[in-house]
């Protein structure tokens, strides 16, 4: 195979892997998916990294964010199940924090959990922090953006193999950057 043909072949690769909706079978494939997350990023998209923290006063967040996003990100509210258009988002691309633009998940990490919230079985490495909350009496693992601290959702252990994880995310706390075309 000539080098140019090989490169062309590699360039269309991610499109075909996206078509299989099922999560990969091995943890090694999950690690590859995490390592290669930038292949799903739109060409020329500028995104921050977790090492550049964004700290703002609550009044500033309130000013910058739409009310529903403010309530979830800064007050740990939960959106109504089924209310986010991102539930049905299936195009290749990257899901970033609606507060600060930090990339959190790729389209390859998303799956249909049937809960009415966008759900993911793994994350972009280093994108999220966790803490335990007791808001509904029993302990849950809350997770938030590593860059701005914005609340995104809760982590459960009933996700698909091989990770067994379900990141149950509020759609209003995310923005989707399609790899191609319009947001
Ligand atoms: Zn953020």
What does this protein look like?
The protein has 183 residues and is α+β, with helices and mostly antiparallel strands. Helix content is 23%, strand content 25%. It contains four helices and nine strands, in the order H-H-H-H-E-E-E-E-E-E-E-E-E. It has helices at 3-19, 27-35, 58-64, 67-75, and strands spanning 93-97, 103-106, 110-111, 119-120, 128-136, 138-145, 151-156, 166-169, 174-178. Strand 3 (110-111) and strand 4 (119-120) form a beta hairpin. The radius of gyration is 17 Å and the shape is globular. Residues 5-20 have low confidence and may be disordered. Bound molecules: zinc ion (ZN). Zinc ion binds next to loops.
List the helices and strands and how they pair.
Layout: H1 3-19, H2 27-35, H3 58-64, H4 67-75, E1 93-97, E2 103-106, E3 110-111, E4 119-120, E5 128-136, E6 138-145, E7 151-156, E8 166-169, E9 174-178
Antiparallel strand pairs: 1-2, 1-9, 3-4, 4-8, 5-6, 6-7, 7-8
The chain binds zinc ion.
Residues 97, 99-100, 102, 145, 147-148, 150 line the site of zinc ion.
Q: Topology as H/E string?
A: HHHHEEEEEEEEE
User: What is the end-to-end distance?
Assistant: 36 Å
Instruction: List segments where confidence is low: pLDDT < 50 over at least 5 consecutive residues.
Output: 5-20
Note the overall shape: globular
Task: Please give the order of strands in the largest beta sheet.
Answer: 3-4-8-7-6-5
Largest sheet properties: 6 strands, antiparallel
Number of helix segments? 4
Oligomer status: single chain
Radius of gyration: 17 Å
- Global mean pLDDT: 90
Helix coverage percent: 10-25%
What percentage of amino acids are in beta strands?
Answer: 15-25%
- Number-wise, the strands total 9
Present as ligands are: zinc ion
How does the helix and strand content classify structurally?
alpha+beta
């Amino acid at each position: 195979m000539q080098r140019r043909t090989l490169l062309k072949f590699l360039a269309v690769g991610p499109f075909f892997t996206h078509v299989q909706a099922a999560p990969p079978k091995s943890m090694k494939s999950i690690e590859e998916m995490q390592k290669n997350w930038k292949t799903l990023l739109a060409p020329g998209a500028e995104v921050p990294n977790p090492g550049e923290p964004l700290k703002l006063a609550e009044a500033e967040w309130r000013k910058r964010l739409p009310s529903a996003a403010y309530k979830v990100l800064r007050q740990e509210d939960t959106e109504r199940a089924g209310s986010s258009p991102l539930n049905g988002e299936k195009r290749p691309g990257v899901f970033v924090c609606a507060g600060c633009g930090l990339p959190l998940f790729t389209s390859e990490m998303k799956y249909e959990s049937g809960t009415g919230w966008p759900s993911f079985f793994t994350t972009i490495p280093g994108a999220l922090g966790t803490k335990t909350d007791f808001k509904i009496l029993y302990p849950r693992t809350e997770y938030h953006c590593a860059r701005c601290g914005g609340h995104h959702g809760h982590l459960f252990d009933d996700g698909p193999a091989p990770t067994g994880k379900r990141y149950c995310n509020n759609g209003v706390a995310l923005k989707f950057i399609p790899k191609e075309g319009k947001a």
